[in-house]
Design a protein that fits this description.
By secondary structure, this protein is mainly beta. 6% of the residues lie in helices and 70% in strands. It has 1 helix and 10 strands, in the order αββββββββββ. The chain has an 8-stranded antiparallel beta barrel with strand order 1-3-4-5-6-8-9-10. Strand 6 and strand 7 (156-164) form a beta hairpin. The model has no long low-confidence stretch (mean pLDDT 90).
């Protein structure tokens, strides 16, 4: 979808710059903290709360009108979530191994690189203060996925330390991005940004490749997060 939309947007930007009286391109850097959670859509699967994470990235704003821009760049997102679900485990008891179903608790630690493509709309409240909103799409690529697990069997709690679960998490994440904030002008086009962003995924984060999952029905879960960010643009 982004490949089809981008050429049209670039054409509009180029045409609009012929008589532009404003700075057409702005770059910047951003950081943020986020709260991520997993929203399952399968019987016997449930969310167990949020996981805190952080973000850093690069901002590119391409204006096609004075108060309207195409917002892109990249974000390195470190986030996750928690989920409870039934799982088949091999459990060692008194020197023998028992295969049984347990209620499994997993904390997800996920790392993505996200390429946003948003429409940014802003309006000045004063010479120094501007408010803005943004809406668009995000395409993310998984860089790593780790899980920290625990369950209780026969009154004994079993913990499994953080381990690689790349094969169990989808490589791509498509999402809707909605947010807004404020720009505080320092000098010229240089400004500090404070913003809040909601990032809602469309696609299933689970691949179903975990052999311990109970696949009837095949589990589905959506990963979302909300972020409080700050940045500087030039």
């Amino acid at each position: 979808m982004i490949k089809k939309i981008l050429p049209v947007l670039l054409f509009l930007i180029i045409i609009s710059q012929v008589k532009a009286q404003y700075k057409p391109v702005i770059f910047g850097l951003r950081v943020g903290t986020n709260l991520g959670w997993v929203k399952p859509d399968a019987e016997e699967y449930s969310s167990e709360g949020v996981v805190t994470g952080f973000t850093w990235g690069f901002i590119g704003e391409f204006f096609f009108m004075e108060n309207y821009a195409i917002l892109t760049g990249f974000n390195m997102n470190f986030n996750g979530g928690k989920m409870e679900y039934p799982s088949i485990r091999e459990i060692a008891i008194d020197g023998s191994t028992v295969i049984d179903t347990v209620q499994f608790h997993r904390k997800y630690n996920l790392k993505y690189i996200e390429i946003p493509l948003c429409l940014k709309m802003k309006t000045a409240l004063s010479e120094k203060i501007t408010i803005f909103g943004k809406i668009g799409l995000g395409t993310s690529f998984r860089l790593s996925a780790k899980g920290t697990d625990n369950y209780t069997y026969d009154g004994v709690e079993v913990s499994e330390s953080k381990h690689n679960i790349d094969d169990e998490i989808a490589f791509m994440r498509e999402s809707l991005i909605v947010g807004g904030g404020i720009e505080l002008k320092i000098k010229g086009s240089t400004a500090v940004i404070l913003e809040i962003t909601y990032d809602n995924a469309f696609n299933n984060m689970l691949t179903g490749d975990d052999p311990t999952l109970i696949k009837d029905p095949k589990p589905k879960a959506i990963h979302n997060f909300v972020e409080l960010g700050a940045g500087i643009i030039f």
